Amino acid sequence: MTLETPGRRVAPTLEAVAAEAGVSRSTVSRVVNGSSHVSPDVLAAVNTAIDRLNYIPNRAARSLANRQTMAIALVVPEDTNRFFGDPFFAEIVQGITQGLEDSDYVLNLQLASPSSPSEKTIRYLLGGNVDGAIVVSHHSGDDFFTTLDATLPVVFGGRPYRPDLHRNNNFVDVDNAEGAAMGTQYLLDLGRKRVATIAGPDNMQAAIDRTEGWQRAVRASGQPTDLVVHGDFTMAGGAAAMRELLERAPDLDGVFVASDLMATGAISVLRDRGRSVPGDVAVVGFDDSSAATSGEIQLTTVHQPSREMGAEMARMLLALLRGETTERERVMPTRMVVRDSA
Amino acid sequence: MTLETPGRRVAPTLEAVAAEAGVSRSTVSRVVNGSSHVSPDVLAAVNTAIDRLNYIPNRAARSLANRQTMAIALVVPEDTNRFFGDPFFAEIVQGITQGLEDSDYVLNLQLASPSSPSEKTIRYLLGGNVDGAIVVSHHSGDDFFTTLDATLPVVFGGRPYRPDLHRNNNFVDVDNAEGAAMGTQYLLDLGRKRVATIAGPDNMQAAIDRTEGWQRAVRASGQPTDLVVHGDFTMAGGAAAMRELLERAPDLDGVFVASDLMATGAISVLRDRGRSVPGDVAVVGFDDSSAATSGEIQLTTVHQPSREMGAEMARMLLALLRGETTERERVMPTRMVVRDSA
DNA sequence: CTGAAAGCGCTTACAG
DNA sequence: CTGAAAGCGCTTACAG
């Protein structure tokens, strides 16, 4: 070992292992890749050499040769604050990680711009860095992501905004409209006479669907469907929306909120204004994320199985990567979780 | 375009661009890499071809040829809950992202096991997937990370537990002992007669340093230094530690908590037990993360510039990657932020 | 300024 | 079961 470069150890190559074991590179490659066509003694010799040299295959060379990166991207078109601020994402990530655990794939998180992806993101996704992608929190207007599945295997978290634009259309979702209707109906069954909603951004399909579910239930009850204010899925957004709602309808006595985090913000405004929850105003959230139970008052909410959804996205992508043409749309169930806010 | 494979578009190569532009692959490569030795007309022709074909260089081939991946890993040896639960990490990530913005490097997040890294993580880091790594929240006992810098350029968030084991030793930190002493002194100056601490895990250097700072200040004041209970840097951990502290010393009237998140948990226990904050018990946190201002009572805390620290780690790694032998240890300042809890 | 050629470290038919 | 050889898509001296 020369000391010429004060630098770092140079990684051993397949070639070195072959020399050490006294076999050809092909054979070493077979061993590394678990081919069965290797005699026991050669197998042992190669493994010894691998251990001795501490050999780890070079990913770039491997990828170039077999056109697989063994990496998948989790793309979330949200800024850091939104991503880290909403426990929903943590659960999705946990689910995906879990779904990938037994595979050889690693997960690379890419936070993208909420509006349209940066040049860097595009080059990353299209430059052969990953074998597939999971896109969560997709906003309409992101034409890039919409058409990405023509180039790369992609699974979306949430049904697409414009299904017609997709080449392939794989997603995991819940029936958001149904869930929202259920949450709203819960408020109506409580006898609430003026039920509003704090909706999500109207460029997200899940938000649109939840608003529609609220609307459906409210309309069926004979109440007016005018009380909708949009928030941005943050706590502050929920608070702002609540303020506007109170201004527009001081007499409201129930509100369905499209996410737990927004519900938390809404509740703090209600209490600041002297309204008791659920006494004066009953609040139902959506997600049943950890935000539902971390605030001052435990949220009654519509549960969606975020972790399982993440795991399912991973499984679906893995199946696509294996070339299987399995189920491509998976809609999971929601359910009411009754706690203290309604 | 044949319809034989129902598959996906195959990406155009350098070769294709060269053919399209009527030049050699070398020339296209030069254009792609921004070499100046290209005549204007050839440059234009190549760029046109690139646009027309929508060419994006294949990363694997590129990496293999020039031994650069243009990716760096952010390694956080914490489970998903800890990572997503503590806003401190969000701020670090924001800082790093910001520090990398103007570079061509992408950031790949790797959550590792808190104890020792998985085979997958090791292979990832050593298999040529990244050009360098930033390791945050390093625990002692992780010999792998400790010696990783012999193989890969690494910057640590926080000074090392065992500096002697490191080959290279690059880190960004604050003076944790100093900061903790300052926070504790603040409590003492308030006239608190029995000041405890909720410390972090004792396998983390930052936690050890903060405990030492508390101890130094408390000892100097003539109070006993027996009131230390360790938490795990989570809200629940802070709450549990507070319960134990109250049991051991019902008369305590001040507590320095090694993280804002733990402080939040501690305060909720105090209030549950009927102790007013800061009236009965004054609480000082550490971090000044968003956790300091999101609870029922705004935290008085020791501020550390998390975002700037992240940015600095990125800059330091970038410098290492450029081969610069710059400053390798950067200690940033802390300061008191006085709010309502003390 | 431009091109031919070698090489990066693997995998994978193809022979044997 | 094993090896020689071609090839994956780039970069980079080396000539010219």
Rg over alpha carbons of chain A: 26 Å
> Biggest chain pair contact, residues each?
A-B, 45 and 45 residues
Number of domains of chain A: 3
Q: Describe the global form of chain A.
A: elongated
What does this structure look like?
- 2 copies of one chain form a homodimer.
- The first copy, chain A, has 342 residues and is α/β, with parallel strands linked by helices.
- Chain A is built from 14 helices and 12 strands.
- The first copy, chain A, has a 6-stranded parallel β-sheet with strand order 2-1-3-4-5-11, with helices on one face. In chain A, strands 7-6-8-9-10-12 form a 6-stranded mixed β-sheet, with helices on both faces.
- In chain A, strand 3 (132-136), helix 8 and strand 4 (154-157) form a beta-alpha-beta unit.
- The N and C termini of chain A lie far apart (72 Å).
- Mean pLDDT of chain A is 92; it is low at 1-6.
- The A-B interface holds A 8-9, 11, 56-61, 63-64, 69, 71, 80-81, 83-85, 87, 89-90, 93-94, 97, 104, 106, 108-111, 120, 122-124, 126-129, 150-153, 235, 294, 296 and B 8-9, 11, 56-61, 63-64, 69, 71, 80-81, 83-85, 87, 89-90, 93-94, 97, 104, 106, 108-111, 120, 122-124, 126-129, 150-153, 235, 294, 296.
- Chain A binds a DNA duplex (16 and 16 nucleotides) through residues 13-15, 23-27, 29-30, 32-33, 37-39, 42, 57-67, 128.
